[in-house]
Amino acid sequence: MMLASKRFSFPNFSESSFSLSRGSFSQIWLMVVAAAVLALAGCGGSTSRPTPTGGFTAASLTGTYAFAFSGTDANGFFSVAGSLQANGSGQITSGVEDINRGAGIATNVPITGTYVIRADGRGVATLNSSVTNFTLSFVIVSSSKALLTRFETGASAGGTLDLQSSSTFSTTALAGTFAFNLSGIDAAGNALATIGSLTTNNTGAVTAGVQDSVDNGVVLTNQAITTAGSSITVSTTNGRGTATIVTTTGTLTFAFYVVDSNHIKLVETDAGTTLAGDAFRQNGPFTNASITGPFAFVVAGADTVAGGPFAAGGVVTADGAGNITSGTEDINDAGTIRSNLAVTGTYSLTTSRGTLTLTSTAGTFTFVAYPTTAGIQVLETDTGIVTSGSAVQQSGTFSNASISGTYALSFGGVSTAGELDSTAEFTANGTGSLTGIIDINNVGTLATGSVLQGTYTVGANGRGPFTLSTGLGTQNMAVYAIDGTRALFIELDNNVVLTGEIRHQ
């Protein structure tokens, strides 16, 4: 099991792993590998093409942005991270990117490109380089953030775009402790996830660190990172950095891109393995009292025993004294659905790292946990499961009115045919219905500007049913509100495993 919105990492699954009927899947979310399994019959899209409305223009993206996306192409799983300069009139005037894919690794590659933004905030961008070109579909959340998918007939992926703060492009600005949360595949194509923390000084030297990892069900916990040889560097020009991390299982090298002093995006640049994800600042030391109140979580990864993808989500309440006093969880384990399960548990935090257990009728699941400025980063440590993610503090009171106004939406997952990714924009009326426009990449079958309709019910704990109707058919979800501006969701149909999020525009 896994907490928060992550891309999926599903290696080496066969269609015989599932017996699925027609129904409606990460970080990731966020990651998916080429042989991923589950099938959504009848994709494509509605023949109706509604007219976008709103106030977005090309000027809505102006400045320097860090981007990252992961998914699948003809060579299998890949991950990309980079920085681009958008001029506010449709041109990507400069940038660089790092690519880790089956066709090889390319580092610090110059890019240019173009972009078009529709009135509703949906847009299309091209990234051009001497190595390869990418076409991206995206939806703007604000001038500082967009949700994106790779939108090509031969490839699909999901990711984000974030405005960079150039004043934080230095090892001094990044000094302190960051928790990283990375997932992908090992050299054999098996699911791999790792989480940990690094402390660096003003010169970029690593002064302390710890790592937990799960590689195809092999669990290593609380492993010290060797400070000798571990370091980071940062370019003051575009926020691109490099990191060398010496672990008990070997030396890992990364390219990363600074968003701000609390957030960086990473992609591994070693041959064989492919890890990607984010790192967020930790403002510790932490105690049990650091985790108190209600949290929403969504999780995704791989069940290596069942041989399929896994997603779960829910809401839990922590008492600040080491107990999860109540909660509700939904699970989609390779198409087997268990919904609205009562959850309790325990947790223990010391300094920068802790442990967590969640217990329901589905069993007891164990995690390591790292509190950060972006929520609690979590890795499951049960044998046979490779999942990671985060839980986010909820705030306010909840009802249908909690989802009201215009939102950007993205989701990612797999069907029996392969990877499924989407971005959309919609308007919710605050009483339980929504309508909008969606762009879908269903295993390379592209549907642009299709009708999106839906219904939702938000309970007092922030959880409730969430139904989307698109060219894919009817998708039955569970939604978990964080506040009035953001919610997470997972799909509860037995032929698709996906996670997603909505953010108020």
Describe the structure.
The protein is mostly beta strands. Among the domains are: 115 residues, Quinohemoprotein amine dehydrogenase alpha subunit, domain 2 (Lipocalin); 103 residues, Beta Barrel (Lipocalin), CATH 2.40.128. The protein is 1% helix and 64% strand. It is built from 1 helix and 35 strands. The strands form 4 sheets. The protein has a 9-stranded antiparallel beta sheet with strand order 13-12-11-10-18-17-16-15-14, with no helix packed on it. Strands 1-2-3-5-6-7-8-9 form an 8-stranded antiparallel β-barrel. Strands 19-20-21-23-24-25-26-27 form an 8-stranded antiparallel β-barrel. Strand 5 and strand 6 form a beta hairpin.
Quick structural gist:
This protein is mostly beta strands and 505 residues long. It has 1 helix and 35 strands.
Number of strands: 35
Net shape: globular
Looking at the overall shape, the CATH architecture of one domain is Beta Barrel
Largest sheet: 9 strands, antiparallel
Q: Helix share of residues? A: under 10%
In the CATH hierarchy, the third-tier topology of one domain is known as Lipocalin
- Structural class of the helices, strands and pairings? mainly beta
Pick out the low-confidence regions: 1-46
Distance between the termini: 30 Å
Strands of the largest sheet, in order across it? Answer: 13-12-11-10-18-17-16-15-14
Q: State the helix count.
A: 1
- For this structure, what is the CATH class of one domain? Mainly Beta
Return Rg in Å. 21 Å
| CATH level 4 superfamily of one domain | Quinohemoprotein amine dehydrogenase alpha subunit, domain 2
Overall mean pLDDT stands at: 90
% residues in beta strands: over 45%
